[in-house]
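Cross-posted from the bioinformatics board.
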Amino acid sequence: MQELLQQLVNGISWGSIYSLIALGYTMVYGILRFINFAHGDVYMVGAFVAYYSVFFLGLRSGGVAGALGALAVIALAMLAAAVLGVSIERLAYKPVRRQARLTALITAIGVSLFLENAGILAFGAEPKFFPQIIASKSLRLPGGAYVTTHQLLVLGGSLVLMVGLNLIVYRTKIGLGMRALSLNRDVANLMGVPTDRIIAFTFGLGSALAAAAGVLVALSNPRIDPLMGLLPGLKAFVAAVLGGIGSIPGAMVGGLLMGIAETLVSGYISSTYRDAIAFSILIVILLVRPAGLFGRAVTEKV
Amino acid sequence: MSRRMVQLPATWVCVALMATLGCGQETLSIRIGEFSALTGDKATFGQSTTRGLGLAIDEANAAGGVGGVMLRLISEDDQGKPEEAATAVNKLVTQDQVITVLGEVASSNSLAGAPICQDNKVPMITPSSTNPAVTEVGDYIFRVCFIDPFQGVVMARFAAEHLGLTRVGILRDVKSDYSVGLATFFAREFTRLGGTIVGDESYQQGDVDFKAPLTALITRQPEGLFVPGYYTEVGLIARQARELQYKGPLMGGDGWDSPKLAEIGAEAIEGAYFSNHYSIDDPAPEVQNFVQRYKQKYGGSPDAFAATAYDAAALLVEKLRAMQQEDTQLFAALVGGIPGDAGGREQRRQALARLRDLLAGTRDFRGVTGLITLDAQRNAQKPAVVLQVSAGQYRFVTRISA
Amino acid sequence: MKGRALLYQVGATLVLLAVLGLLDRFLPTFVNQYIIRILILSGINIMLAVSLNLINGFTGQFSLGHAGFMAIGGYTSAFFSIHAGPSIVQALGQSPQSAGAAGAVVLILGLAVGALCAAIAGLIIGIPTLRLRGDYLAIATLGMGEIIRVVILNIEAVGGARGLTNIPGYTTFFWVYLLVAITVIVNWNLVRSRHGRALLAVREDEVAAESLGVPTTKYKVLAFAVGAAFAGMAGSLFGHYLRYLNTNSFTFLKSFEVVIMVVLGGMGSITGSISAAILLTLLPEVLRPIKEYRMVLYALLLILLMILRPQGFFGSRELRLPLPAPWRARLARFARWVGPGEAGVTDEARAAAPGAAAVSAVPVVSLRAPAAGDRGALRREILRLEALTVAFGGLKAVADFDLLLRERDLVGLIGPNGAGKTTVFNAITGVYPPTAGRVILSGKDLGGLPPHRIAALGVARTFQNIRLFGQLSVLDNVRTACHLQAANTAWDAIWKTGAHRREEARTLGRARAMLRLMDLARLEDAPAAMLPYGLQRRLEIARALASGPKLLLLDEPAAGMNPQETAELMALIQRIRDEFGPAVLLVEHDMQVVMGICERVSVLDYGIRIAEGTPAEIRRHPKVIEAYLGPEGAAHA
């Protein structure tokens, strides 16, 4: 029982990371019907920006200073990623927006490869280790499981960001524009919704969330390298599909479910099949219920 | 000036340039090839290896080369991938026409390159591949380090006899044949010595979260954990194990060897043990001299990969010197590229065969990583050292022989 | 004819074998092993790129898991060579050390094993995932490739994480390039056949393809299996060359590399794939000095390519060699018999007299000129709708609809927007299954049959939003419709048998005759998407007719036409009915057309039939007027 509880704690913690990344995917797909393959790499860029910021700002670990430092680094990373996201959209995706879906997908693959390999060139291929600016302490939960301050940080941080996102999407004008675009882009455009601006904003917002996820992960699991975003990115995509791509609550729930499923399989069956789990879930979902848990089924008009 | 007068010299200049570009290689040196991962995520291993080799070659050249002939090291990058390793070795042997190939660290890359060396009858010395299959490829393939079965046995003995453990859990890197091999041999020996393996979980290179398999292991209350992986993951594993309230000792193999291990692992890895090829603390003069010279040339401290690479190159140099003294004419066939005429090529073949024989007969070579003797399978028989992480340093604990 | 073809084919094969054999033997004396290595790796990459192009380029199914098939082929054949190889070699009287000819036998068997296993994997993977489209399919195949890799990683029998060692090195230049030739020829011939056209139709528009009788799922799976088989063989050659296999060589990055080759060469161009594969094998070697920048440059190349020239080198066309005309004609003639080239399209056929061709274009339904007293009980019943109901959730789009059509009937189906007219069509053609009631075609209940089966029974349609195969030529759009009338198998296509060539000639003749009939003959090579709107409609009708239907469903054929075009259309429809004899059901808004040519009209409103009768009766019918104009409008009418 204690083992199960511990695995659940592990799973939820990791799952909230998937949720954060999945949110970016789902928002972009909702509006553009486009899978931004490069999204996972933005997560990586966020972690690296934070890494270099720590040195640049001369941060030290522990206590309140550490916590403030962490906040500062997260903010910087989110800002940098937002800029990156908007730039990618303008330079690489906008020109192919009206082309076949496949062209856009291949472009996204190209951007992803570019970010990874430019990262290897710029940062070096070997992994770097994020300084521990927030100390790790284990807290005992009722039931015998242990949760670390890091895991709480990740969970808490994710929740705060998700609430923030919800506020933006459902309570602001620009959020209204995003929702309009996701329902019918052309009509929204005709209605005067500033399409380009909102698309850019969506990319920026999604990228900021991914970067925040990257920093949160780096703070608790400090190994970062230029290829770190590849697999989490794909898995977060699966999480988004699981929850219903285009649905924000779907991305949140999907991410948590993915994290828990992976952890349970890793712990009880074998860690080697962990990656296979993510893809198996994807295939099953696409065959059984392609709309996902919360999504709307879209039928093609003949 | 007439056009023709300008054109003619210009043509000759061009031809001359192209000729030099095409050849690109002077003929009066002994060519030694090296393949390693200079790019890719195992790049630190490749960099250490190249540095170790480079140091040995430079020292040999500073002493006047071998028989007055300079040594030239040609390095090729294999990006850490087996098929690239094969292409790199192919290029070294057929295009660059080296007389020996040194490499690689990762056994999978050595396994990809070895058949090419064997086919072309060019000796290959791997400084740190520990998979037994590498030297099984053929009699031209050598290694100056111990093999996985031995290392696994060393740590099993250490765990059982030195630490007195009876229940151990294993966490292996399923993507690394090195890790899988070590884990298997450890388990076998440990059980033979009367111990129990309480759990055998796995992770994959590149993971950052190990809580799931660790939880599964720790629930079984092991007295020790054997984690035969690479430093890139072990540091994190140690921390997460401590976070899950595991208090016992951690053990591992030579893949731990990197200053980064202590950096990431911090307090969590303090007190952990791992087997290695050499210890930087070893008071033996060769070792200390080597460490000094390495620091002087490159700045940082040499890790085990740099040390074994140094030994591999130094061994080769010694055998070349021996050959030069024994038969100058045969030795001369090793200088420069492969000759064009059939007679010259035959000489070269014989010279390489002689070099191979000399290498095979290595006895008690005084290397930085210990006294190296090559057995009938061309693997090094030498003891391993066990080190302990102590205040960020790796302190010598004991030496274990076969 | 047959004799000559066979002679050419056998002759060409012998020449190929001889050339490859000579190269294999003498190349090492001119170039070193390193260059040969590059040539062999290029050959393997060509096989990968061409086979992936069949799936991605020709069938339009974006697969990102090709490395998985390569891995399966490589590992299974290597396992076979290691375990079964020695006994075979010894049985053939040679020692395993220097196996020579016996080694070749083991390699061939190993290739067969690899191809078979990979093809089976292609089937197993294809059947579930090919229900997905576009992006989802891409990710699902990516996932499948990774799952394959993880599974292999865990199989100790093939080495697991340590890799599979001691694979005998049976791969030589000869075998690689022989297989490259086979790969190219098979794919080339397959594509230039009715099966190839079916694949292209699947790529262009699956719904339209289904409506012409092409079983889309079956073809998608076929493409997957064939592509997988060749990738498997490439993997076998790879394993027997490297003599060591490790799953790290088969990650999705490898799949991406092959995708880049296909995209760079042009999806849908075999010569493009060949060129790109060679280029992208050479490039890393040439770029060795700046190897750290290689991948970054590749990535930038890919992005720029998509923005500036997404069709790659050759788009969907093949390389045209700059030869003078008489040589080009000779080459084409030779190629027709032997391998690449249009089968059976001789110069004589090109200049065929219209009369002869028209006869060969006789569709299934017999040509009968309408006689005055021909209308009556003697005409067979073609379509009967009995209480047809189609409901979506709680909404009944069509409720309790009855209709009867006999041979040569020209019936109109009208009603305000949203009345359910297209839904009726969709129910008849099998796009939606009836919720209640029956659709009976010539006495056979169509309930539950998939669209391509219904099409095969003699139903053809046009669509409200024109669904042409845009990238294909006008001629090919019509030729695709003849899919149902030919019977040659894929095997025939690959070997270019006499049956295949005759069938192709017949199809070509039939298609040309149809185009002449519809006055589209001069545009036969134009891409369908380039046609002006009115001609597109006409082409769609021509295509539907070419499949030889006994029931023709036309969905708003006059939409967007000016009065002149509309008049021409009306004449055309009547002529079609008179000359070819199908029953015609016409959905239209344009009253000129409905009143002008329909003999009977059925009116739908909110899914229910509110009137049926002659055009004159309908025009005066109060309920019809009310449906169109509303109650106040009816009062004023």
